Amino acid sequence: MTMEWNASSYETLANLMTKWGEEFLSRLDLRGDESVIDAGCGTGRVTEKLLERLPDGKVFAVDGSHAMVEAAKERFAGDGRVSFSRQNLLELEVEEPMDIIFSTATFHWIRDHDRLFERLAAALKSGGLLAAQCGGEGNISRINDATEKVMRREPFAPRFENWTDDKLYAGVGATEERLREADFEPENIWLHEEPTPFESVEGLAAYLGAIILRGHVEALPETERVPFALAVA
Ligand SMILES: C[S@@+](CC[C@H](N)C(=O)[O-])C[C@H]1O[C@@H](n2cnc3c(N)ncnc32)[C@H](O)[C@@H]1O
């Protein structure tokens, strides 16, 4: 799956991620002058809320997608508190270690959490905080089951013969172990339900095609993309 995202379709469909991101952000106790890495900033919708909490702080907004970073740059043009970098978080490099790593709706897109946590630990000051929200074990399991079935159907099946999914919905125990391995001291790791009703099958299909199933859809010719997302929905 490419690292590239369609920033404009994300903007139109990201209300859910923004809501979850804001809820998560509201749990954080911030002084307002911290240096923060937003790991997987996307178009900057949650970064914007983060900046409201950091009047004297600074944000290093990192994302692997060129289109996402460009959209975020446009959103924060002229705001001296923000700097941007297009980087794979698995290779993350920072000029100086920072106080906090904040991340929303991103880690489940990255399969190698061992490597991810190792790079994040190297980017934090000693005693720094990692605060991340993402899809966890069991997330979208009904969608995954439906996707498996639709992938085996004609005309889609031949396109998925060598398919591997590179997302990871990690559990609490495995995450705790990986964090300790990377020298973090995990304090609070949890899973919670996030029931997400859609008003129509078409609305769900649009969300699936642009976000959850974007890798699958990329493997299909243009004419099969909407039918695939609709069949899963
Ligand atoms: C669903 S979006 C979330 C964006 C934003 N945090 C939000 O809540 O709206 C996931 C983002 O993670 C980024 N991402 C996924 N894997 C990445 C990686 N390995 N390195 C850097 N960014 C990555 C994607 O490019 C995308 O912008």
Concise synopsis of the structure shown:
The protein is α/β, with parallel strands linked by helices and 233 residues long. The chain has helices spanning 7-13, 15-25, 45-52, 66-75, 113-123, 141-151, 172-181, 201-212, 214-218, 222-232, and strands at 35-39, 58-63, 82-86, 98-104, 124-133.
Q: Describe it for me?
A:
The protein has 233 residues and is of the alpha/beta class. It has a single domain (7-138, 166-197), classed as Rossmann fold (3-Layer(aba) Sandwich), CATH 3.40.50. The chain is 41% helix and 14% strand. It contains ten helices and five strands. The protein has a five-stranded parallel beta sheet. Helix 5 (113-123) crosses helix 7. The longest helix is centred in the C-terminal third of the chain and has 12 residues, at 201-212. The protein starts with 6 loop residues before the first helix and ends with a helix. The mean pLDDT is 96. Bound molecules: S-adenosylmethionine (SAM).
